[in-house]
Structures are given as C-alpha cells and as structure tokens.
Amino acid sequence: MSSEDTPTTDKTAPTAGFGIDIGGSGIKGAPVDLTGGKFAAERLRIPTPSPSTPGAVADVVAEIVTSFGEASGTGPIGVTFPAVIQHGVARTAANVDQAWIDTDVDTLFSARLGRSVHVVNDADAAGVAEARFGAAKDTKGLVIVLTLGTGIGSAVLLDGQLMPNTELGHLEIDGHDAEHRAADSAREREDLTWEKWAHRLQTYFSTVEKLFWPDLFVVGGGVSKKSSKFLPLLDLRTPIVPAELLNDAGIIGAAILAAESPDTPTPPAV
Ligand code: BGC
User: Fold this and answer.
1) Best residue among 80, 91, 92 to mutate for probing ligand 1, ranked by most atoms within 8 Å of CB
2) Interior CA angle at 209 toward 228 and 232, to 5°?
3) Is the distance from CB of 112 to CB of 267 less than 8 angstroms?
4) Domains of the chain, residue spans
5) DSSP secondary-structure letter at 136?
6) Ligand 1 touching residue 147 (CB < 6 A)
7) Within a 10 A sphere around the Cβ of 56, how many other Cβ atoms?
8) 3-state SS string over 4-68?
9) Distance (Å, rounded) from C-alpha 141 to C-alpha 155?
10) Could you give the residue ranges of the DSSP H alpha helices within 134-215?
C-alpha cells in the first residue's frame, strides 16, 4: 500500500460535545461522546418554564450547562428547537411562544452562556443522529426521518447529508395542516384507536413518498417506542423503521451539528 492509499483519520475532529434538547414539557442536556454517539454522563432534565419565553428558556439552558461543570467541555454547545432555525434565527413558532419568531437564538444563548452555541431544528438533530448512529446508519440514498409528537418534524438526508428545515409536517393534505391530523398529539387529543390513527398516517406517509421517493423512512418521537402498534398497519412502497436512539437523538444530533458547523458563533467577550 502506498502512503497515498493509507486511510487517514481526522485527528482534529472533536470527540466530545454537549447537546441540549428543548421540548414543550422538558429541557434536557448531556455531554455527548461524539465518536460513540452516546451520552458521556447521565442527562439532566428541567421542566420547560411557562411561559416559555426566550429569556426564561435561556436561563434553563444556562442552568443545565453550568450544572455539568467541567464535564460540559469547552467546545460549542448544540441546542435543538422545535421551529425553523435559519443560521441561528428562529423563523416560525408552530407549537411554541410567538416571542421566538425572529429571535437570534444562537446569539441569545451564546451571550447568556459566554460560549459558542449552535441552535438547530429538533427533527434535523434527531435525523442526523439516526443517520450517524441509529436506524439509518450506513443507508445510502434518500432518508426521511419523521418525528411524531406534538407536531410532525422532518429531516431529509441524502447519503447522510442533511438538507435543513424541511418542515414536511406542514404539508397541506385534504385541506388540513398534516400535523394537526396525524401528529401523536392528534391521536391523544381525539382519543383515536391505533387503527384510526394509522389510517391518517397512511395518508400522510403515502403523500410524502409520492412527492420524494425516499429509500427509507425512519419514525421518531416518543410514540416510536410503540411502533409495533401502528407500523405493521401501514402499506407503503418505502421501507419504514422505528428510530433507534429515541429520546437521546435530539441531544446527540445537536452536539454533532454544533461540533461540525462552520456557522457556530464565537461568544462575545465578557
Ligand atoms: C415545527 C417544526 C418541528 C416539529 C417537531 C413543527 O410544528 O414546525 O419545526 O420540527 O413541529 O417539533
């Protein structure tokens, strides 16, 4: 083997990161082992403040990072948020306080913490984690990860590369915002049987596959733990599997994206 053929590893790639997942009921964070795709210490969860305004949420994010002390590392912190995040700025607020719209979340959190913070859409983070370490590991081609929770989040990945902020939960189907009919919150709100909900999922997933022709669907969100109740009821041409990293995917994906993003801002000097 000539030296040109010798496989090289990127010795500068960080091996440790920190991720935080901001959800409607809880804000969770943990140091992340970036090479193994798992938590490096037990995660901490603090209930989401009410009202969940930017300042109140920034305080909780800071409390979580600080509580880990040195274990939080020195690199950028990755944070998920359930909205479109364009270059650190929240652009939508479907299921969160409207005060977030147009908030520069990267700058707000970086200033509060005195260290670099990179904020990303929650489903994008989960999708990256599943593609790297979970249900879509080593899958070539087009993977669509759909998270079924309060809303429907989407991550679209081509050969493992994320196309951010796809928002497929808001496809309009039969005159309705898709997530309003097919999210897990619709199943709970309307007390739907698994069969009735699966019928709505059938309509939703068929529409997505007709438009995108993916090679694989991954279903995430808390309800993916109960996938045996509804995935066998679906009839799709695309293979469909439950997420593997479940609740950990957001934290792990956020840490990966922060470590790899050229966008991560340097915090202002304090
Ligand atoms: C939001 C998305 C988010 C998804 C899951 C949707 O209502 O528009 O940005 O990813 O919910 O939280």
Assistant:
1) 92
2) 15
3) no
4) 11-122+254-260, 135-244
5) T
6) yes
7) 14
8) CCCCCCCCCCCCEEEEEEECCCEEEEEEEECCCCEECCCCEEEECCCCCCHHHHHHHHHHHHHHC
9) 14
10) 178-182, 184-189, 194-212
Is the CB–ligand 1 distance for residue 80 below 6 Å?
no
Q: Which helix (H) or strand (E) holds 252?
A: helix 249-260
Match 């090679």 to its residue by tokens. Answer: 215
Element (H, E) at 173: strand 172-173
| Sequence-distant (≥ 6) Cβ neighbours of residue 238 within 8 angstroms | 205, 209, 213, 214, 215, 216, 217
The answer for residues whose C-beta is within 8 angstroms of residue 8's C-beta and 6 or more apart is: none
pLDDT for 40-94, tens place per residue?
Answer: 999 999 999 999 999 999 999 999 999 999 999 999 999 999 999 999 999 999 8
CA distance linking residue 164 with residue 87, whole number of Å: 10
Does the C-beta of 145 come closer than 6 Å to ligand 1?
Answer: no
**How is 75-127 classified by DSSP, letter by letter?**
SPEEEEESS-EETTEE---SSS-GGGTT-BHHHHHHHHHTS-EEEEEHHHHHH
User: Does 11-122+254-260 match 135-244 in CATH topology?
Assistant: yes
Pocket flag, ligand 1, residue 153 (CB < 6 Å)? yes
| Gyration radius from the chain CA atoms | 19
Tokens matching residue 188: 């709970």
CATH class of the structural domain 11-122+254-260: alpha beta
Of 8-22, 138-152, 234-248, which range is least confident?
8-22
Query: Could you say which architecture CATH assigns to the domain 135-244?
Result: 2-Layer Sandwich (3.30)
* Token representation of residue 255: 């840490």
8 pLDDT band (50/70/90 cuts)?
very low
